[in-house]
Amino acid sequence: MGKGRLYGLGVGPGDPELITIKALRYLRAAPVVAYYVGKEKRGNALSSAKPHLRADQIRLPLVYPVTGKKPEPPYDYEGVMRDFYDEAAEQVAAHLDAGRDVAALCEGDPFFYGSFMYLHDRLAERFETEVVPGVCSVVASASVLRTPLVYRDQRLQVIAGTLPEETLTRMLSEVEAAAIMKLGSNFEKVRRVIRALGLESRARYVERATMEGERIRDLAGIDPESVPYFSMILIPGERWRGQ
Ligand SMILES: C[S@@+](CC[C@H](N)C(=O)[O-])C[C@H]1O[C@@H](n2cnc3c(N)ncnc32)[C@H](O)[C@@H]1O
Question: Using CA positions, which residue lies closest to atom 23 of ligand 1?
Answer without folding.
Answer: 230
